[in-house]
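Q: what sequence does this backbone want?
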């Protein structure tokens, strides 16, 4: 149940100073940088700082405090007009306690968005277990490329968009693209963040079980996404990927509520109105496909980002953009110019013929699709995967078997010991050793390691010229990638 802050929120125009607790989260950091660009003095604190968000904050001029303590807030030269508290912050956090007990106006980021900005705008919410960051980035960039000047709020750093958070205008009817996160809002507001986003249109890319720390089961996940659909405002629409039975079920529910539904999916998917045809990757790594509308060709698109999942992300973008009045040529040009999102199949360097890729994938479906996409874009390279189980779900054994199938897409696998499992019951913990045993049993080369430096040593020793090393983690992974690149340089023969 949502509860309002103890002190009413100031109007956006009245904000002069804002303090953010948990500022280095992707969305929180983007919000902080946006406020700073608007001339607002921004301070913030966090426990974990790593790129790319740390770079964004430093470049924006946000004042950062390392660690959480009451004095970060109470010791500021001037009292903030608003304190924004991140969803990673617990009620027992000393800094949050200082905000509550000190009578500060406080809120969550989603609630701040809802009350300060989204009432007036036309909100395009991109949600789903997978693909929401890339799809919302694709949509925002395509609209911007076509001169529509959208606002946007995206949980990732795009290679094309200048910022993750951009507000062009808070006016009635102006387009606002939002990445709709299903994770909970704040310790006093245990509902999905997207419950605050007032959707006019919603894109639903996928619905699978995830976030095992806050959702008891898959039914609870589906109920959360059903709540998003019930919040679509009159005259809005749902664009739904019916590759997933769960999404098909939610689409039927939307239709029963008299919401316009446009379906899409992979070739041959039952009930999919829009599908891709003749998907191919050319010699330069471009992905090409033709769009079918109930079997009728509607034109072709090309993408610099590989994989079937990105074909579907682009298809969803094309549908929404066309509904908003863009021509096929405008959408085609925008999608072709899109260079991707950082930490999504991002090339970080090549040393001695070993290409190192950084990717955020952590759910088994995302792992599988990412490895397949890399295989298609870089044919002929041996594919080596390195995985850190770090997310709340990946550190639990809920997908123990599914990871074995997903990493079977690679030629060799190096699996790190899971990130801190101290708060997870032993019987519920994911086992890296078991995953490696399963992979070996199925004939795959695999090993696990406890420490980052140990893993870097093993990967360096195993890598050979022509390899592609895909490092998968949804966190900093102890600086694994820069350490690996440096290790490969030291190994490489002098020129």
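A:
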């Amino acid at each position: 149940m949502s509860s309002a802050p103890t002190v009413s929120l100031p109007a956006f125009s009245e904000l002069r100073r804002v303090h953010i607790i948990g500022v280095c989260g992707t969305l929180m950091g983007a919000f902080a940088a946006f406020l700073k660009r608007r001339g607002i003095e921004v301070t913030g604190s966090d426990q974990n700082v790593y790129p790319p968000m740390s770079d964004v904050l430093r470049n924006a001029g946000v004042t950062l405090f390392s660690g959480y303590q009451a004095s970060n807030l109470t010791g500021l030269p001037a009292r903030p007009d608003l304190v924004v508290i991140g969803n990673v912050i617990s009620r027992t956090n000393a800094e949050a306690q200082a905000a509550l007990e000190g009578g500060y106006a406080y809120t969550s980021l989603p609630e701040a968005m809802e009350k300060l900005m989204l009432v007036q705008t036309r909100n395009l919410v991109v949600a789903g277990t997978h693909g929401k960051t890339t799809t919302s980035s694709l949509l925002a960039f395509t609209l911007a490329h076509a001169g529509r000047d959208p606002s946007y709020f995206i949980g990732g750093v795009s290679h094309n968009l200048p910022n993750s958070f951009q507000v062009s205008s808070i006016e009635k009817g102006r387009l606002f693209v939002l990445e709709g996160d299903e994770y909970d809002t704040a310790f006093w507001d245990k509902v999905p963040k997207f419950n605050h986003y007032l959707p006019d249109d919603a894109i639903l890319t996928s619905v699978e079980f995830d976030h095992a720390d806050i959702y008891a089961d898959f039914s609870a996940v589906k109920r959360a996404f059903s709540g998003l659909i019930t919040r679509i405002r009159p005259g809005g629409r749902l664009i739904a990927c019916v590759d997933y039975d769960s999404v098909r079920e939610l689409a039927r529910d939307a239709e029963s509520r008299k919401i316009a539904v446009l379906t899409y999916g992979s070739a041959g998917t039952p009930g999919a109105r829009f599908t891709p045809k003749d998907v191919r990757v050319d010699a330069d790594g471009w992905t090409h496909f033709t769009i079918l509308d109930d079997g009728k060709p509607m034109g072709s698109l090309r993408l610099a980002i590989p994989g079937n999942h990105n074909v579907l992300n682009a298809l969803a973008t094309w549908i929404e953009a066309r509904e908003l009045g863009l021509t096929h040529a405008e959408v085609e040009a925008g999608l072709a110019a899109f260079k991707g999102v950082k930490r999504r199949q991002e090339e970080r360097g090549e040393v001695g013929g070993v290409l190192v890729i950084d990717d955020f994938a952590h759910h088994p479906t995302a792992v599988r699709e990412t490895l397949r996409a890399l295989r298609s874009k870089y044919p002929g390279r041996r594919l080596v995967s390195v995985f850190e189980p770090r997310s709340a779900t990946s550190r639990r054994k809920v997908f123990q078997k599914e990871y074995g199938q997903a990493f079977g897409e690679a030629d060799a696998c190096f699996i790190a010991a899971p990130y801190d499992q101290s708060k997870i019951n032993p019987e519920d913990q994911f086992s890296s050793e078991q995953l490696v045993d399963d992979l070996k049993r199925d004939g795959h080369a695999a090993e696990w390691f406890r420490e980052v430096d140990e893993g870097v040593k093993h990967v360096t020793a195993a890598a050979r010229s022509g390899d592609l090393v895909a490092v998968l983690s949804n966190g900093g992974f102890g600086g694994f990638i820069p350490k690996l690149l440096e290790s490969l340089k030291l190994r490489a023969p002098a020129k």
